[in-house]
């Protein structure tokens, strides 16, 4: 006959686990002997091994008793069900691991891969990190709001950034971040930007530059973030308005003598 410590040792368990299984009603408690000790036989070892094996396999203790008493077919079906549950849990944990990994990967936390690659391209071209961060912060709500259009927008942005004039705009904007409102460099930048937008509209047509579908209130929200983050951008838009265009996320052609405008965008 075995003591509780010997039982636990032979079954590869702990005394605490044995007592826990007693409390759960999974392992019967033997009567105490004349010395006041509980003594276990070989059957208790076999039963404890079976309980421990099921528990370590991920079977909830609430179902262990059911499986111990089940017939062969019933046992197989229950095991298959538990296995599928464990597979689902593994898939969910893998998704959690992927999310955790993205926490350490900067821009990838809330952006599609192609947007991250575009931002990295801006960095590689020498665009100031402050400008890149504003671009990133704008793309986060855009991608969340219209994920189905990200590929389309990114194709346009990749094409635009290969245009030397667009790249020059980004680099000039980078250099203008620390300038004051009266700096002539902002006027030059407004000239360059207005020339580029006008050329794009003339060459591609206004439908091409207008096809983003970003609602004006949403565009205004994104613009306010740009203006708050990059103060020179507000002054730049004021100068751009004098040159026939207005807006940031949605560029609009200013038509003198008319109350309306034609919505344009560089997104």
Describe the protein's architecture and organization:
This protein is an all-alpha fold and 267 residues long. The protein has 2 domains: 4-103, Orthogonal Bundle (Multidrug-efflux Transporter Regulator, Chain: A, Domain 2); 107-263, no CATH class. The chain contains 13 helices and 3 strands. The chain has helices at 4-11, 15-23, 42-56, 61-69, 72-103, 113-124, 129-145, 150-161, 164-176, 184-204, 206-210, 216-229, 231-241; strands at residues 245-246, 252-254, 261-263. It has a 3-stranded antiparallel sheet with strand order 1-2-3. A hairpin with a 6-residue loop joins strand 2 (252-254) and strand 3. Helix 3 packs across helix 4 (61-69), helix 9 (164-176) runs antiparallel to helix 10 and helix 12 (216-229) crosses helix 13. The longest helix is centred in the N-terminal third of the chain and has 32 residues, at 72-103. The protein is rod-shaped, with a radius of gyration of 34 Å.
Low-confidence stretches: 258-267
The helix-strand sequence is HHHHHHHHHHHHHEEE
- The whole-number mean of residue pLDDT values reads 80
What's the structural domain tally? 2
Task: Classify the beta-strand content into a percent band.
Answer: under 5%
Rounded Rg? 34 Å
Total helical segments: 13
Structural class: mainly alpha
Largest sheet: 3 strands, antiparallel
**Amino-to-carboxy terminus distance:** 80 Å
Q: Give the neighbour order of strands across the main sheet.
A: 1-2-3
Beta strand count: 3
Shape, principal axes of CA atoms: rod-shaped
Percent helix, as a range, is 55-70%
């Amino acid at each position: 006959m075995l003591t509780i410590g010997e039982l636990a040792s032979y079954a590869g368990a702990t005394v605490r686990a044995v007592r826990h299984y007693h409390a759960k009603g999974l392992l019967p408690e033997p009567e105490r002997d004349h010395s006041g000790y509980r003594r276990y036989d070989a059957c208790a070892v076999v039963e404890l091994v079976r309980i421990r094996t099921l528990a370590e396999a991920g079977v909830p203790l609430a179902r262990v008793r059911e499986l111990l008493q089940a017939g062969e077919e019933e046992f197989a079906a229950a095991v298959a069900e538990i296995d599928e549950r464990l597979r689902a849990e593994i898939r969910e944990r893998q998704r959690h691991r992927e999310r955790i990994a993205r926490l350490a990967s900067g821009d990838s936390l809330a952006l599609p891969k192609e947007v991250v690659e575009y931002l990295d391209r801006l960095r590689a071209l020498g665009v100031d990190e402050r400008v890149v961060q504003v671009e990133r912060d704008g793309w986060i709500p855009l991608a969340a709001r219209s994920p189905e259009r990200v590929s389309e927008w990114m194709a346009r942005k990749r094409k635009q950034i290969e245009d030397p004039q667009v790249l020059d705009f980004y680099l000039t904007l980078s250099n203008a971040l620390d300038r004051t409102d009266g700096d002539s460099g902002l006027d030059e930048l407004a000239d360059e930007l207005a020339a580029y937008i006008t050329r794009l509209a003339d060459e591609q047509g206004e439908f091409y530059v207008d096809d983003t579908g970003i609602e004006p209130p949403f565009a205004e929200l994104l613009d306010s973030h740009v203006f708050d983050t990059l103060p020179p951008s507000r002054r730049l838009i004021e100068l751009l308005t004098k040159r026939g265009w207005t807006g940031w996320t949605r560029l609009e052609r200013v038509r003198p003598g008319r109350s309306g405008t034609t919505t344009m965008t560089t997104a």
